[in-house]
Amino acid sequence: MKLGIILQSNEPEHVWNALRLAITARKAKHDVRIFLLSEGVELERIPDSEHFDISRKVKQFADLGGQILACGSCLESRSQSEGAACSISTMAGLLRLVEESDKVLTFC
Predict the structure, then answer these.
(1) What DSSP line would sit under 25-75, residue for residue?
(2) How many CB atoms lie under 10 A from the CB of residue 100?
(3) For residue range 13-33, what is the model confidence (pLDDT) as tens digits?
(4) Looking at the domain that runs over 2-44+51-107, which CATH code has it been given?
(5) How large is the greatest C-alpha to C-alpha distance in the chain, in angstroms?
(6) Helix (H), strand (E) at residue 89
(7) Taking the chain, what is the end-to-end CA distance rounded to the nearest angstrom?
């Protein structure tokens, strides 16, 4: 299955759960892409905490071959640039993710 995940939150628990699902799907050999939109582009700025190890989950997802894309306009509006874990994309990239995915989930 091709799974598209749209992540629009910088809330640690929401992000952590989205990443846990993405990791579980990759381990089950599904194709998974995450698109960061709105506050989601702040992913790499979310500090780890006792309960939510965001950076570890991002690395684990990447190590499993998962792909993370980030909305360039959303990054620009926050004076951010491309991060180490994600590539800059566009609305056309988001549309491609939606068109090519068997299922699309949004975490807000």
Answers:
(1) HHHTT-EEEEEE-GGGGGGGGSPP-SS--HHHHHHHHHHTT-EEEEEHHHH
(2) 12
(3) 999 999 999 999 999 999 999
(4) 3.40.1260.10
(5) 37
(6) strand 87-89
(7) 22
3-class SS of residue 79:
coil
Q: What is the pTM of this model?
A: 0.95
Locate 98 and state its tokens.
Answer: 């939606």
> What percentage of the chain carries pLDDT values higher than 70?
100
CA distance readout (Å), 21 to 8, 17, 44, 96: 15, 6, 18, 21
Cα dihedral angle (25, 27, 31, 35), rounded to 10 degrees?
A: 60
Which of 34, 10, 40, 37 is CA-nearest to residue 20?
Answer: 34
Amino acid (one-letter) located at 74: C
The CB-side HSE value for 2 (13 A sphere, CA atoms) comes to: 8
Residue 48 tokens, joined: 């780890």
DSSP state of 5: E
